[in-house]
Amino acid sequence: MARHAVIDALTFDLDDTLWDNRPVMELAEQGHYTWLDDALAAWQGVQIEQWGRYAERFPLSAYQDRRMALAQQYPLRRGDFTWIRERALIEMMEEFGLPRSAAFLWAAAAMDRFMDLRHQLQPYPQVGPLLDRLGEHYRLAAITNGNADVTRLPIARHFPVTIAAGELLAPKPDARPFLAALARLGTPASRAMHVGDSWQEDVMPAQRLGMRVAWIDRHDDSGRSLPPGVYRLRHVSELPALLQWLDSRLN
Description:
The chain is an alpha/beta fold.
């Protein structure tokens, strides 16, 4: 019976659901690290001949490896990407020779640069009008493992409820961010639909809770069978047609 309840709330994943996240992260990843290397070189001044360039000793690949190691070392923090990035930078700059206080300051500055670049993103053109239309009929929430701050984006007005799952130390597929969103929306799982692109982090946990799921199948995994209550979409712009079809089945 729960599967056929009227839907009155929608929860959305963000990265790779409402925008293409790869170019955003490529820009932010390379951009903030290049900025840090250049800024440290300018700060070192004449000492650069003694110290060398930071990125020569710790290339971007070393930074990425350090983050992976920290995620394994601190499993509760594995989804708190901002913390992991900043911690990795602090450790490597201390190993480079900076005093701990300076390492903290430079890591914070680099993360400010990262977050500026991280938010130079453009939702798909259909997203703004789509959320406008959906907001007239449904309560909306965002549930993200990423560190995009919705309040820094124009779409913030559509999402009175936003759950940053990684910062809660309960990244998807943990059920807690979904339960938190449902509680703040004031709706049971049976009356909600989750919209996301990840099978493991979006589809499975939401479906287990009894939510219906609109799966954005970005990689055309057409051979995968769908559990009850899970619907395949190629793009988030197809969501209104799915909701209209589900509504028609109740009438």
